[in-house]
Amino acid sequence: MEFFIIDRNGQQAGPFSFDQLVQKGISPETLVWKQGMADWTPAWKVEELRAVLEATEANQSNQKAQRSEEHTSELQSR
To answer: What are the residues facing 33 on neighbouring strands?
Structure first.
């Protein structure tokens, strides 16, 4: 299943696989479309994308935690 998105610059992009959508860091409000859909729809309204949104959230949380740990280590080494 591949989806198109409206990116942060308001441009249509895609198609993207589920893994690519996670890498792009889509938000629940990202407008998405796939063949068979009548119109662009916020990602949170698309049942198939719930796992993508959960994975994106987890990925972003992990990145924030990693940056925080790196910053703490950097401060401690000074």
So the answer is: 4
Reported as a single tens digit per residue, the pLDDT across 16-40 is 999 999 898 899 999 999 999 999 9
Please answer whether residues 32 and 3 qualify as being in contact, where contact means their C-beta atoms are separated by less than 8 angstroms.
Answer: yes
Confirm if 23 and 31 have CB atoms less than 8 A apart.
Answer: no
- At position 25, the amino acid (one-letter code) is G
pTM for the whole structure: 0.73
25/28 Cα distance (integer angstroms) = 10
The backbone torsions φ and ψ at residue 41, rounded to the nearest 5 degrees and listed phi first, read -135, 140
32 neighbors 26 (Cβ within 8 angstroms): yes
